[in-house]
Specification:
Pdz3 Domain; 6-stranded mixed beta sheet; 2-enoyl-CoA Hydratase, Chain A, domain 1; 11 helices; about 400 residues; alpha+beta; 5-stranded antiparallel beta sheet
Amino acid sequence: MLGPEFCTRPRGARSRGAALTFVFATVVAAAAVTNCLPQDEERTPEPRPAARSAAPSAEKPSTVDREELARAAREAMADGKSAAKAAEEVVSRSGDRWGAVYDRREYEEFEQALDGAYTGVGLSARRDEDGRVEVARVQPGGPAAKAGLKPGDRLRTVDGRPVGGRSVSEVVALLRGDAGTPVVLGLERGTRGWTQTLRRARLATEDVTVQPLGDGDGAARIVRIKVAAFTKGTGERVRRAVREAPAGAGVVLDLRGSSGGLVSEAVSVASAFLDGGLVATYDVHGEEKALYAEPGGDTRRPLVALVDGGTMSAAELLAGALQDRGRAVTVGTRTFGKGAVQMPSRLPDGSVAELTVGHYRTPAGHVVDGRGVTPDVTAPSRAEERARTVLSGLGTPS
């Protein structure tokens, strides 16, 4: 599992190592619709089965009073204790399944990541079959790429600290820091071992990738658009990819493992394929609201959306909208089931508590939270191959 450098181990309300899943998974763009700040999650493996088996629509908006949170934080600070810890206890007692508390630096990093940037050395890490941490991907133009690091290189140490026994998220956290600061990596490639000093830099995330897929004669009959997360600018990048796709080419919109992000960007992506109309409804403290696509999208190009258990939050809303509106055939496995509207509450020490205040629904009124989106075509394996077969059956626009 990849661990991008802007991932950080968040501090969940129920425990400091709370089972949270995937970057941006809890990001609900209350920011996009209420001018509030969003929140993120990291990649950890535990919660997916529990979340998918949760009682449908069992979640209720948080009943935590913001003044109660602030009061608990102030009292803790007056006693020389952690304000964030006190807030975590309040949120935990509320029963808010998605509630979490983040310290000032974590939240600043989350905001930076939502801007489509992070500070690091430009690599992603994963654990190999032998349990060692290795480089999974090197970002072109980043410090790691300029130093000649390659996928498969093994990380032994970061600033002299052994990475053995640490989680990928912990290793990733060691790689972060202020732009311009050095970090010394101990590396292995085959039988060669060496140390490499890199300087951290502010880098753009690569959340949208476009790949033309040719047929036997080399013509691009399919364009695969992969959306890893919905950061600022994602919608415009997808819309540009659709505009630039060859005439007659179908689109595979790959949302597998997409960790969510800003709902405003998911709506913008929906606008690439819809001519206006409803994308989702949501409630905030019982008040119903709605999100609409912009008119003028490409409604004729054949479209298949790939989804799986790692498709989360804003990505689920997009998949549900395209499915309910009859615009796309969804292929894969049931999505994660994270559809909570959350709003932040800034505490006296600068930490932030995220509280659930409502839930999203698809255009047909389907609840996402605790249920996820069930694909039209179930494909637990060889999903991309199945998607291409389905797409070929949809024909070409006329």
